[in-house]
Amino acid sequence: MTVRELIGQSGARLLNEGVDLEGEVLYGYACDLLSWVMARAAAKTAWITVMTHLNVVAVAALLDMACVIVPENAEIAQDVLDKAKEEGIPVLGSGLTAFELAGRLYEAGLKRPEKG
Length: 116
Known about the structure:
Largest sheet: 5 strands, mixed
Oligomer: single chain
Number of domains: 1
CATH superfamily: HprK N-terminal domain-like
Strand content: 5-15%
Radius of gyration: 12 Å
CATH architecture: 3-Layer(aba) Sandwich
Strand order of the largest sheet: 1-5-4-3-2
Number of helices: 5
Low-confidence stretches: none
Structural class: alpha/beta
Mean pLDDT: 96
């Protein structure tokens, strides 16, 4: 599926306009510990996290993730959104909890990455 299709399936909204939404999404992952994510997530992952700082963008870019999804309408500073746009990482927001989002991604056919 693409990020655009994921937005439709999850009900999330794009927070940083101007990024490519046609990137492929193969996996879903939910975690808030950066080192854990770095060791276990993979490229083309939709990452659900409540963290909203610049290090999230750095990890997502390092792993070539498909997108970052922030649950529960957590606020994200504009500089973080700008950096994500610069790195080509779509940032999505949702009023759903991480648990609910993970369920929707799973129902849409996304599984966890094979590593880790």
